Amino acid sequence: MDTVDKNAPCPCGSTKKYKHCCMRKDQQAAQQRQQQLRLVPSWLQLGLQALQSNQLAHAQAQYKQVLSLAPDHPEALHWLSVISFQRGDKEAALEQIARLVASHPGNTLYLSSKANMLKELGRYEEAIAAYESSLQLKPNAPDVLNNYGTALAIQMKHGNAVANYRKAIALAPTYADVYSNLAVSLEVQGHEEEAKSQYLTALRLNSNQSYALAGLSRLEHENHTLAVQLVEKALQLNPNIGLWWMQLARLETAQGKISKARAAISNGLAVEDFPELKIFDATLLPCIMGTNEEVMASRAEIEIKLDRLIRDKVKFRDNFTEFASNNFYLAYHGQNDRALQMRLAQFHVQALPQLQYIAPHCQRRLNHHKKRKIGFVSLYSRASHSVGASFAGILNAIAADERFEVTLITGDSLTDEQMDHAYPAMDRKRVLLPKKLALAQQAVAALELDVIVYLDIGMNAETYSLAFARLARVQCVLGGHPVTTGIPAMDYFLSAETIELPEAQDHYSERLIRLEHGAFFFRRPEVPVFNKSRTALNLPERVHIYLCPMTLFKLHPDFDAAVDAILYKDKEGVVLFVETPGRPLYQELLEKRFDRTISPEVRNRVKFLPWISEKADFMRVLEASDVILDPFHFGIGTTAIWTTAVGTPFVTLPSKYMRGRVGFFYCKMLGLENECVATDRDDYVRKAVAFAENPACRANIKARILAANNVFYENQQGVEDVKNFLANCDLPVWN
User: Fold this and answer.
1) Number of H helices and number of E strands within the chain?
2) Are the C-beta atoms of residues 599 and 568 closer than 8 Å to each other?
3) Phi, psi (5° rounding) for residue 248?
4) pLDDT (0 to 100) of residue 138
């Protein structure tokens, strides 16, 4: 207000002089304003404290008091804009912040807030540019470095994100959030051990860092109980993140707790429209099958829900497919899965068209280089896993062949020593598969492969999602998970002539390749000294032991009737199964099924052994048993490495599909198809009981297995079959 001379007419319009009219009142008002202006710093401080405590209404009131005295006060305008953004008036808030940045170009706080708003609005490139401008003015700002890193990570620029997180940590080593964000980027890049370490550091600094709790849960692969506890605590702290409800649902499913999994799905959908929860719900299956009627009902429910998803055109968010479909347990139902797998694939293509990425080199004319470039893909490449145990020898033999240049593409963080042990011919040539789909596609595309061979598809969402892309001129899958994929981009399924029925092409969406000798390569295990009694091995004495040492989720309800009949026929018989480590509910669920499907008169002779971690003792248990029972529909696999080495007779009943005909294939290799392969369930029971009750017959079969088992190990003929396919398959151009 302009100063008025005291002798001048009063501005109020009266005829009096100013000193005799309003001057005193105006002086009092000016003094009051000065007193109030001295309170502005306190109001700003109170507003900031309220904002940090998430008391938005109280903070807003403090800042409005400031503006009532100073309408253009930039700090109050800034924080009111932040509050407006948080309350949903996002565009108006961004406009106000943009005006502040324009009028105060050197203020890094305003610039950083603008960048944060742009990031929240999904305008990532603009956000990154704003962060970079802020960092040019103030390069050592930990908050800005952290937020810049998250924007880069959203854009899949995890290498740059990691570099900025590390700078922030160097400047602020007690900043818990940045450790958690660093861990996320490391996890996505596949560096799980370092990611775990960073999550733990975040939690040491702040035990309630919810993102670190959820991340640590994702990386806890051994202790499922702990993994559940971690993600549950994260959800208590922050219940509005659908991804974490998805994690909980998957963990509960793995434990067999289907009702809890469905509750987690319901809770997740209540707080966030998370499409991945819908597809997970649509394909949710019990890990331990119920009765036949329940199995068929669960499959029918999948078809209904899947049709609904396709009809409603449900879409995945971004490139997020790590928790996509849950179709692993379909293969154990003993049905032709081709139509259902193709329907699942159809949904995935509709839900995320980016799945069908085509690598640039596949669209170019072929350059005839000296060696064919072959990539082998699996998350389970360690020699201790059944997939690694089945195929490591094949990979080594192909890598040693001068016609091929071989790369292992894996989710396992194998050390150089582990590579040298399991894959000595590969010269440590491996690619660690990133967890994000786009990054994984790019990493594999960069190899410019001629042929890609998936050792398994359907055991995890990562490689299932990757398989939709055209990453090589020829794409094929081996029987690590022996069921058709239904995926349009998968060209061939490599199986064996002996194992497949004449009409087997009807079981596959891929073109079925019937190799003469089969694609597997088992190394002969070292056989221990059999110096422990049954009692020492926790086995019952003076009974006939029928051992079924397969994973419990393989056990189809059709098999229960055979168990029942064996125990009726052999009054001295006991059927033994083996507990699954870390999955106590598997046994509980299976025992409940047995209570319904096995007669009370023999039910007490169905028992469970504790998990046998030592391979030497496992082989001793196999050798001390009278008969090995191969379950129906999805039978023996790598367990045969050890059963064949000790020679215990086994009996098998081949089904229609490859996954239920492996035992038959092994028997044919060993020359025992007449003795060990049953024609129907009654014949299965007769053969099993005959082996158990007749020591001479059992000894004869054992001697024949031990004499012939050299054909079972180091299957060089099977290796040559795979080599010939890889060397001679046509390499088309894909447009």
Assistant:
1) 32, 12
2) yes
3) -65, -40
4) 92
